[in-house]
Amino acid sequence: xxxxxxxxxxxxxxxxxxxxxxxxxxxxxxxxxxxxxxxxxxxxxxxxxxxxxxxxxxxxxxxxxxxxxxxxxxxxxxxxxxxxxxxxxxxxxxxxxxxxxxxxxxxxxxxxxxxxxxxxxxxxxxxxxxxxxxxxxxxxxxxxxxxxxxxxxxxxxxxxxxxxxxxxxxxxxxxxxxxxxxxxxxxxxxxxxxxxxxxxxxxxxxxxxxxx
Length: 212
Hints:
Layout: H1 3-13, E1 17-19, E2 25-26, E3 32-33, E4 35-37, H2 46-63, E5 69-73, H3 76-88, E6 92-95, E7 108-109, E8 117-125, H4 129-140, E9 144-153, H5 157-165, E10 170-175, H6 176-185, H7 193-202
Parallel strand pairs: 5-6, 5-8, 8-9, 9-10
Antiparallel strand pairs: 1-4, 2-3, 6-7
Helix pairs in contact: 1-2, 1-6, 2-3, 6-7
């Protein structure tokens, strides 16, 4: 079984992916979505957690063999970066969404030397804005960001274009299309729902999929 399908199956088994096309979720951006992915649930499911963390480790080795440090995104990527860093015996830190207003006023937590080769660990990518901010902070600190490993990506056009414009590589363990297909096979959704989900992914601002 491919990593994409194995991770998709693991996420579905622990109900980390919610399908609700008849009553869409509303994201902070205002986008209405038939799908919500809560990768924090991975942490409370040891068997699936083992699958995901070792998949992240293999992805780092295969795609970023020069990695010297893993940096998690705050907050959802922190635990995954820490567990994977332990598997790979690598240093680990994380990037806050903003600098602290006290103490050393850090935004990057953990030791990071200029020129170090960094891989960012993110739980999911939708429009890509938050993870690109993390990449920018690391670059400004003098790190060489090799790329990102994310557990799940929606594969939205806006996110793909933003990552390309920021000149940063992302490798996701699984993606929206694979999740939809595996969910249908596992009878979490009906086969006819797949087209509805893909229509949302292709153009989130067009809400005509809700009426189907």
